[in-house]
Amino acid sequence: MNKIHTREQKRLMIQFIQIGIIGVLATMMAFVGGCTVGPDYKRPEDAVPARWSQGPQAAEGMPQSAAEEKLASWWAVFGDPTLSSLARRAAAANLDLLLAEARIRQARAAAAVAGADLGPTLDGSGSYRRSHSTTTTGGQTSSATTDQYQAGFDAGWEIDLFGGRRRNLEAARADLQAAAESRRDVLVSLMAEVARNYIQLRGYQQQIAVTRKNLRAQEHSARLVRERFEGGFVSGLDVANAEAQTATTAARIPLLESSARQTIYNLGILLGKPPAALAVELSPAGAIPDAPPDVPLGLPSDLLRRRPDIRQAEARLHAATARIGVAVAELFPKFTITGSIGYQSDDAGTFFDGSFWTLGPSALWHLFASGGLRAGVDVQKALQEQEAITYRKTVLLALQEVENALTASSREQEHRQALAAAVAANRRAVDLAEKLYTEGLTDFINVLQAQQALFSTEDALVQSTTAVSTDLVALYKALGGGWDIASTGKDTYPPAD
After folding, report:
1. Is residue 430 within 8 Å of residue 454, measured between CB atoms?
2. Are 415 and 299 in contact, with CB atoms under 8 Å apart?
3. Structural domains in the chain?
4. Cβ distance 320 to 387 under 8 Å?
5. Which of 14, 76, 331, 365 has the fewest Cβ atoms nearer than 10 Å?
């Protein structure tokens, strides 16, 4: 009974000590919880223009919610099911995107580690040791064998008196946000690359079609010239000129086919597949995707909340600001409460009869570090200044990218209109030149020049049509459209503030 009574007293004593430790730590944490050294993060104020230098600020008659939805999945405005399919598949399997998602998981785990540093630690330990000793005294030799059993718990809690660990957690969370924005930035670039390569593929295919059509027309003209030469109506120079033109036109086709094939390979890699995986699907020629030019631009200030690269730069600035507090906290003392509870005995049968416990605070203060700690603060301040400059530069480059895309898009549309008029005029010129040549009223060189001019303008019109669409892609990318694609189902990180 006495043994049982003694064990019960010890158990109650241990519980009392544990409650006391928790109470003391909770009181201290409540007392110091509001003390955090270092600067608090403030969102930078950006001097952005009130409107774009050219172009409408939003699609006419389009509500803001509809405009944002249009930007979110902008590739749908081209009305091309193949393009939409490629975009969905790329968002699900692109390797750069998967790599960015892995970095998010790494940053999330790092934030969890930083958060765990704020809490107490509890370690359990146990040991058994058997020892044997032999001694000789006055010619008498004696030996002894002993056993020692030990088990217990060690607890510790560093009181975050000056907020260094809380600042570290703040920085880790900002790093997590930066990783999330990095993935979004990869997604924006990925959607633009898929659309650009697909549009260029269709452009190459249309150039091949135009070249083959003109080649057939030139071959027909060459046969007519050869017949007239055999009839003695024209010289051999006309035959040579006609054959040279057809050979020159035919020589363009292999180069265009090579470019088209390489573009298919690009798309395969973007979708996380072997290069030739999409060859069967994409080799049949298709029309160049075209879209209305009414892009919902919004205001320049909208870029600050929409473009992932700007949001990533801001998150990195936030993390750098928080790490100044981490460095400043190193200048102040650290307070830790430690405690141990355990049992120790040389007999397993009486293991619980011998107990021990310790409890007490400790302090550590780096009183002299040759200026290293203050230099560490200066390092973090310099890094924070660099991130602030990088943020400002990112904003300016984003504004420039949109302005460049607006200029290129509007001017290319004018270019295409002029080329369409040139194509119509050159077609009339070819018809007239061929008629006059058949009637013997003009030289064949005029037919060659008319045909070459038509071929050049038709080819340029296809290239311009391709450029109009790719310029629209560049504009949507510059506006930050496409990062919140819902079909991926992988946005598991916290949303931006």
Report:
1. yes
2. no
3. 33-93+160-331+366-488 (1.20.1600.10)
4. yes
5. 365
pTM summary value: 0.83
- The CA distance from 415 to 423, in Å, is 12
Among 38, 40, 45, 41, smallest CA distance to 318 is for 41
Q: How far is CA 282 from CA 258, 271, 405, 443, 463, in A?
A: 14, 13, 28, 44, 19
Q: Which pLDDT tens digit goes with each residue over 48-81? A: 888 888 765 444 444 555 667 778 889 999 999 9
Q: Is 28 exposed, middle or buried (0-12, 13-18, 19+ CB in 10 A)?
A: middle
Cα distances from 4 to residues 58, 71, 148, 346, 354, in angstroms, run 83, 75, 22, 20, 14
Of the two residues 148 and 490, the one the predictor is more confident about is 148
How far apart CA 244 and CA 413 sit, in angstroms, is: 34
**What strand order describes the sheet that includes 334-345?**
121-137, 140-159, 334-345, 355-364
